[in-house]
Design goal:
globular, 4-stranded parallel beta sheet, Rossmann fold, 6-stranded parallel beta sheet, 13 strands, 2 domains, alpha/beta, about 50% helix
Length: about 375
């Protein structure tokens, strides 16, 4: 049973799902928690990644962390009791991840965690709590990097449970690039931009979006940067709502160089990221995607769960600091971007075969 329910989980799970579907005699059960339910954050990923429909959609919906996690636990527990899977596989660090892991653990069902061992050491982030608790109840921990392996060892998790497999987001990105490249010309034309002459911005974390002081600083930095370069801002529903309920959406739209859109699909996002001058984000996944595509990244957080990107000089932490954000964007657009290397085997996130290793490891254990 693979339990997922949010945008990043669909991306991380897709290569594993397709690998399972290639194997004979595997009864694969997909459960969608319904944590993300908008078309742009859910159904479009099933369509673009050609995923089979889920066995069940639990329709958990929005709510506080306790409400969302609690509703998901109750409904996932019923699924596990009914279908009795040999393994519950949970990707990432969302509330769905934790709910599925706790439900399975209480029922004695073995748990596999995709993307185990990631640590920002910022316990104000709900994701940090989710991934730590999930790791400590999991029986198979699929670590994407050597750093994540060492994090797990340092927390006393038995070595026999830890498997260094690489990052399934590399697998997903390698698969997506050919299709994304075909979309690029149309996407850029529709947004009236040219390759290398824009930056992509994403923001969704409550710590940035729900605090007016921080959101004001981010918007101020974008307006300032737009005097020098075009800003493409596919807005998550959370930040779109906050911008609309304040004067900030008007402030952004008064700048001719800022384009605010609804969320876009994975393939279109990859197409835009691939030829961006820089990326500004608070997303863990987009930090990695920017790194793998060779695009300079500025992250609007104090810490990252992917220190490999910072150590490589590809990512800088700017928090929600207007001065730091502006400076990072300015450096990125003033410095000529070197000719990019393609995604390659010798990078900290693996060679694009993580999904094969995960499926092989699971099937050997059955």
């Amino acid at each position: 049973m693979i339990v997922m329910g949010a945008r990043p989980q669909f991306i991380k799970s897709a290569p594993v799902i397709h690998e399972f579907l290639r194997r004979h005699k595997v009864d694969l059960q997909l459960i969608h928690s319904g944590q993300h339910y908008d078309y742009e954050l859910s159904q479009v990923f099933f369509e673009e990644m050609r995923l089979p429909p889920p066995l069940l959609d639990l329709k958990v919906g929005s709510g506080s962390h306790a409400i969302q996690t609690g509703k998901a636990m109750v409904r996932i527990e019923r699924c596990i009791q009914r279908t009795k899977p040999d393994l519950a596989l949970v990707p990432g660090d969302t509330n769905t991840t934790l709910a599925a892991a706790l439900s399975a653990a209480k029922l004695g069902t073995p748990i596999g965690h995709i993307e185990a061992g990631a640590r920002s050491y910022d316990m104000t982030m709900p994701e940090e709590i989710n991934r730590r608790l999930t790791d400590h109840v999991s029986s198979m921990l699929f670590a994407p990097t050597r750093t994540t392996v060492h994090n797990l060892y340092a927390e006393g998790i038995p070595r026999k449970r830890v498997h260094l497999v690489g990052d399934t987001m590399v697998d997903a990105l390698l698969t997506a690039l050919p299709a994304a490249s075909k979309l690029r010309k149309k996407a850029l034309s529709g947004l009236d931009v040219h390759e290398g002459e824009y930056i992509v911005v994403t923001a969704h974390r409550p710590g940035n979006v729900d605090i007016p002081r921080r959101l004001n600083a981010i918007v101020g930095a974008l307006v300032e940067a737009s005097k020098r370069i075009k800003i493409l801002f596919p807005a998550h529903p959370r930040i779109y709502k906050r911008l609309k309920s304040s004067n900030l959406m008007g402030k952004l739209r008064r700048s001719k160089n800022v384009v605010v859109t609804r969320p876009i699909g994975y393939l279109e996002l990859v197409a835009l990221l691939d030829t961006a001058a820089a990326v500004l984000t608070d997303s863990g996944g987009i930090q990695k995607e920017a790194f793998l595509l060779g695009v300079p990244c500025a992250t609007m957080r104090r810490e990252t769960e992917w220190p490999e990107t910072v150590e490589a000089g590809a990512n800088v932490m700017v928090d929600a600091d207007k001065r730091k954000i502006s400076a990072a964007i300015l450096r990125a657009i003033e410095k000529p971007r070197p000719r990019r290397k393609p995604i390659y085997a010798r990078n900290p996130f693996g060679d694009g075969r993580a999904s094969i290793r995960i499926v092989d490891t699971i099937l050997r254990a059955q």
